[in-house]
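Team,

Forwarding the record for the chain on the shared tracking sheet. I've put the sequence and predicted structure together so nobody has to dig through attachments.
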Amino acid sequence: MPFQACRWFGVFSRFRMVCAGFGLLALAGCQTGSGDTVGGAPAVSAARPSPATALSPDQQSFERARQAFGSGDYKTSFRLATDLAAKGFGPAYNLLHFFYARGYVVEIDRQKAVEWLKKGVAAGDDKAEGSLGNWYRLGTNVEKDYDKALELLRRSAAKGNAVGKSRLATMYRLGQGVAKDVSKARALEREVYEQIRTEAESGDLQALYRQGLYLVSGRGTPRDRDAGIAAVKRAANGGSMFAMSWLARQYFRGRILPRDPEREVFWHRKLAAAGSPSAQMNLAFRHMTGSGVEKDENRAAELMRSAANQGLRVAAHRLSRLLLTGKEIRRDPVEAAFWSRRSAERGYIPSMVVYAYLLETGTGIARDFAAARSWYEKALAKGRRDVNDRLGRLYLYGNGVAQDPARALRYFEESLKVLRPGARKVRAAWLREVAITRLTPEQVTDLKADGFLGDVSGGSIGKESSNLTAAVIERLSQDAPEKLVPLLSDTLKHLAPGSKATKHTTLMLRSVAHYRAGRYREALADADSGMSLGLTRAVDFAHRGSIHFKLENYADARSDFTSAIRLKPDRADYYVSRAFAQIRTKKRDNLIAGFLDFRKAFDLDPANQKLRPLFDRLGFFKTSI
């Protein structure tokens, strides 16, 4: 499974930057040997100097919740914060909003995140006032409102909250809702700097880290990059996960610090060992690609499991994909389905799509078309328009829903607007044509009225430029399957090297087109070529068996239908096809076997309306064996 390491490192760097906005106590006692220790400075304690006995039981519980959040133990943090919120402990409301805003442990629910912040504001919590005020400033999860932002940030700043002051300074600097006043912004930033400097001197590692950032940027104090970097390194040496994360990010970017992959990996390892799920994912991607570390899919899976168990949805999603497609790791569809479901239930949209597909195909989990449709619809509602073809497939065949070719056609139309050129787009175009063949005259009239159909019987209905996209999207009428052959041939010419799956699907579709046009030898040649790629499915064996039957190669047809049954033993139509092939061989033993195949098909699906006349002629509804 190839990954673009740099792209994903950037993604998780942004993830950590988001987390860094929340003041947390860091872990203590993390030693380094990377050359980033500064002047032999001793490790700074992560705890504030005030004794625990000075805190109330609820305050002590909240400190544990904050520390658990900072160390990546989201489950413990969420449990403690929820218990405190139930008691009306104000600061817990602000902490809870992070879980719902970012999807830690629970499904993303930005409305709930706003509700928790509003509860915190009502309780007078300065951090909640600062967070919600900043959301109003940016228009994040709420409608942008500078007046409300100013009111909340001023209240937060008046209570001494550094974040509130910092965001208020930004509003003055940019003139957001107030007259632009750079001098006032600078004065607020100086207040913030002095506040965090004092906290840093008292032993607060998070404050020491933020002091370093202020020195590096020159906000609130004269710029001193060397002193700022030194402060961040002292915080990292003391165990601040945010400081470690910042150093790893800078060694990767090479802007503030010289690019140094070795030190970047060192800090990622420290973060991962301390329990940071984002760092564990970074290392997992490195082990997947062998970038700076030994390539090891099993180690990558181990790191992903750890991150997923801490509530990181993307880790659960990537782990499920690895378990489905891994090469060096043991393939485990059951565990893949477990992690995919967990990530989907927490609101991760890509996992919704994967889990729906697993349900649709019965991979690693019991097949459930109705549940698959539900998850596809959830993903579609959240903007994943590429699932339209999969919903169309369910409605086309009546899997988990009432069969509705008109609705299926609408889904296929939408899918063709967004799918990229390739096998899936070819398949969607093909299934669109299948849907057209199943429309009733009334449905055709309604669809034409809505602008979905042109001249259905007149061949191509909606042609684009003559490139690969046009070859994929061009619509074929029911009575002209031969028009699909040149389009699929053009698709094969444009395939990128290594597009094995796409080549397989395109060859099999061209074989179907030849078959529908009555060119059985050409159909057989394409089927043989497609199946030689090693991606053969039961439907491919069944299709080739049908070709052999048409060519009167009954022994070969029997063999292919047997292979199809071996892969899909619950398909009644495969048994019927093999029965006919058995009978045509005119061998006594095969005649008996053919009758038994008919009986097996009846046992599997006695209510099949297409096969019912056959079953009735064979007397299966009157006799039993």
